[in-house]
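SAMPLE LOG
Freezer: B-3
Tube label: C17
Construct: single chain, 414 aa
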Amino acid sequence: MIQPRYLSFDAETRRVGLDPHDQDFVQDPYEAYRWLHQAARSFYWEDFGFWCLGGHDDVNRLLRDRRFGREKPAGAADSQGVSGDRLHLVDFDAIEANSMLELEPPVHTRLRMLVNRAFVSRQVERLRPRVEKFANELIDGFERADEVDLLPAFAAPLPITIIAEMLGVPVEMGQQLLDWSHRMVAMYMHGRTRETEETANRAAREFSDFLRSYVAERRRQPGDDLLSLLISAQEDGQKLTEDELVSSTILLLNAGHEATVHQTGNAVRTILMRGGDPRRLFASTEVTEATVEECLRYDAPLHMFTRYAYGEIEIGDGIVLKPGDQVGLLLGMANRDPLAFSAPDSFDPARTDGKNVSFGAGIHFCIGAPLARLELQTGLKVLFDRLPGLRLAEVPRYRDTYHFHGLEQLVVQP
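STRUCTURE (predicted):
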């Protein structure tokens, strides 16, 4: 296999030079992953400054290994390898300090237990009629257009509306919620700037101020929503502080739509570029579920999770991590592992080895996975049932936002 021209590799040290902003890599990271599966399934990614694992079994194992975690040790770099002065990030860091995504047991356990009751499958399943109805309403708005960008017209409003309704925050604030979320999520992308950091900090402050005022309103007038449920749990002695409540709500709003938007766009792109009647992929409940799982494996919306080592740990192949070191777990690469999947670069909803790691694993397995699956299953089925002749107006391009993996736009002809 030919080594990609944009990738440098030292076989002796297993150091890889791979600019995540190189356009060839942005548009097709799987070319690099294919080569690395042959040359170095574990390697030191110089551009990030830490060791990375790309084998499916290795990624799955470390996601479950309690010797690693998300909580940042004192003095350690953040997920993008950035350390040093963070005084200009005080509001952003205040949100992260109480986010279950960035915490470990016992605090993580308590927070997740309180939130999880709203995301168990039987609770989420009740939302299917609402998701189906709203998907149809969105399609009503563009089905007669000559061209439409499906990202703002369909992929984005569906999940942000559903999660806003679940939490009980004003749906009409959808665009503002998206703006705050995008500005904060930019903190997790490679190569961020001081301006990016200051913008994210302002967004965190504005988002937090809004939620604190809305929490006060919900305390006065509780509703039948998740935010009221979390407030009630706090008042019933569950020791959920207001800071934890605000951080949890921001996490659910951000995570409740960001990855789903990317996955919806990636899935539509994948299906349309293969041609044929798309309705065949949504002919029954079982076929629909299999199609969505293969979309998640084939072109995942997140390509890297990071973990901190909490001791001196050998992770295989002679790689020894020290306390506070980070390790990158490459989900997109693991999902194309030829040792785990037959014909990994083929899109095959009928495969029986579809054990993707797109939602993570272990105690930090995506709490919103049941909701994301329902939104993808229902939204994509409605879209292709309503518009079986949907076709691409242009070949979509991916955004330069690694480790997120999503499209710049998705212009189609209904």
